[in-house]
Amino acid sequence: MSNTYALQARGLVKRFGAITAVDNLDLQVEPGVTYGLLGPNASGKTTLIRLLMGILPPTRGQSTLLGRPVPDRVLRTRLGYMPQALALYEDLSVQENVSFYARLMGNYTPARVEEAVGLVDLSARAKSIVSTLSGGFKRRASLACALVHQPAVLFLDEPTVGIDPHLRVEFWNHFQRLNQQGVTIVVSTHIMDEAERCTRLGLLYQGRLIAEGTAKELRERAKADTMEQAFLAFSDESKAPP
Ligand SMILES: Nc1ncnc2c1ncn2[C@@H]1O[C@H](COP(=O)(O)OP(=O)(O)OP(=O)(O)O)[C@@H](O)[C@H]1O
Ligand SMILES: [Mg+2]
Predict the structure, then answer these.
(1) Residue 22 CA: which ligand 1 atom is closest?
(2) Average pLDDT over residues 121-135
(3) pLDDT tens for residues 46-105?
(4) How far is the CA of 52 from the centre of ligand 1 (A)?
(5) Three-class SS of residue 228?
(6) Residue 216 to residue 225: CA distance in whole angstroms
(7) Which architecture does CATH list for 7-239?
(8) In the chain, what are the domain boundaries?
(9) Distance between CA atoms of residues 32 and 181, nearest Å
(10) How far apart are the C-alpha atoms of 31 and 34, rounded to whole Å?
(11) Is residue 242 predicted with pLDDT exceeding 70?
(12) Cβ 79 vs Cβ 114: under 8 Å
């Protein structure tokens, strides 16, 4: 597989018993872009992210990240992950959680922790114990943990669920800045105006990539006015009997 892509997957399959969560999927993502994964519940978004990161072994197929075959221990510190189910230590403060992840990834400085906490607008609550925070604030803390070590590739699984509109826009502005610095982002979302902000989109349906392109290309191809309509049109097309 070529090294010009930040991420490349070929023939990825993941089965859980009778369920095929990811079904013979090919994917290529160029460096410095935001690649959005759209798809209904249970279409395989989280599973695909976990396969691409090397957290989950595929049933079949292979993938590379930053030119290295996955899984690879060296890659670990170069990846950031904001899981759908948040992985925070509830009995530690925001600052302690973020510091922990920075140390785990071997890139700790107090300034970096402060910056990451500031970025998610949690400086005023840095010393608060996570269990005492609101749901949205916990998500903000989780994003700070994913960003603190300045990863080259960021995997964000529905990062803005429960985040208020103002901060959501701030998050996406920040993702754009990260792209400009060369960071590659893979993000899953159900929010169509976020989809519009992705460089490219992949529509997942029953573990298969049923359409790919920019939001504009997908809308045009589906002859739809909105991304939501385009998504529904592609899903209906996949449902139709051959
Ligand atoms: N560890 C597991 N064991 C068994 N089945 C699993 C496991 N993880 C995922 N699945 C199944 O794989 C399919 C895809 O799940 P996945 O979580 O990847 O979907 P998703 O697109 O992220 O959905 P959502 O939008 O609800 O987050 C589902 O049918 C799910 O039940
Ligand atoms: Mg999911």
Answers:
(1) 14
(2) 96
(3) 999 999 999 999 999 999 999 999 999 888 889 999 998 888 999 999 999 999 999 998
(4) 15
(5) helix
(6) 10
(7) 3-Layer(aba) Sandwich (3.40)
(8) 7-239
(9) 7
(10) 9
(11) no
(12) no
